[in-house]
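Recall the central idea of this unit: under ordinary conditions, the amino acid sequence of a chain determines the structure it adopts. In this exercise we apply that idea directly, starting from the sequence alone.
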Amino acid sequence: MEELYNKMSNFKYFLEKHKQKLLIIISVFILITVGLGFYYVIKKNKEQTIPDKVIYADEGIKLADYIITYNKSNEIKLIDVKTFNEIDMLKIGEGPSLYLKDETLEHIYVLNNNQIFKIEEENGKLKSTEFFKLNESDVKDFKVNDKYVAIFNGKEVITYSLENKEEYFKKEFKNLNQWLLHDDNIIYVDNSKIYSINMTKYKTSKSSNNYLVEVELGGNTDLITYINNNSLMVFNNFGKDLNKYSFFNLNPETLYVNSAFNNDNGKITPITNDSDDNMIYFVETVVKDNLENEFLITMDMEENKNTKNRISLNSSTSEIKYKDVIKDGFATKGYMYYLNGNDLEIFDLRGESLQYTITLNEELISFMPIVK
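Accordingly, the structure predicted from this sequence is:
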């Protein structure tokens, strides 16, 4: 019994002597335990929330193999992006031409003297095919899909069937700035509204309005583009008075609004994308202390994943205003393409820097990257 009492006394003395050290050890243990628990909770939370920054997966990155350029002399050239060299050239007809870039970024159409040509790259060469012969000579704009050719002559839209080469539809229009063909539909904007006319229904039921769908968007539209091959993205100025900008994801058949969201800055310049992209791109201009700063915004439009990546475009070595040069440019699959004077520049969106400069030594009408 005395021995037990002595052991307890010794233990008590040990505790008193080392009380401070033991408290420190216990505190550290509790801190580590709480820290690990907190880390676990944060980690799980991060796994379940949307990331702030878009991650460019390797399989989503694709640099264009070639660039098609065209000038006022109707010269169409093929540039190899790997070598910067012009590897092929052809000339289409005489006189002025109209050009149409296909939304797939795989070929272009050229209208010259009533003849539409399809120009594409094949085995490192330019291939020209006579695509469609028009009866109409006064054409201001034209569109093509896999069923129709549509022309706008300043007064009306006329469509022709690719199957039988005959006129299929005709309707008066005062003005067309943003418009496209989708299946049997002509989709166009007028002021703050977007419309879809089903040409087949129009031919069979002119007395009713069941051929026409219209949606009020609230502001003027800057660009209509495809994403995921079969969904429309509309860049719209709704909210501009409050310095905001709106984006609408629409079903092209019904114009049903799949989703809508806004940007907290109304100074937006949209960029054309590849139709199979699930991302949209635009330049955002921020004015602070009378200085303009530009940012490239990439928005991932995958369902439930409207994430945003924002990179600065300002550089002490460049005086370029991207909001000006990007209006006829492209952004797709990790790269942005634009003309800066007579230079064609390619910007790496992952590295956030200018990667290639191709000096062309000529003034172009425009260009298109070929991304297959």
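Residues 1-15, 28-55 have pLDDT under 50 and may be disordered.
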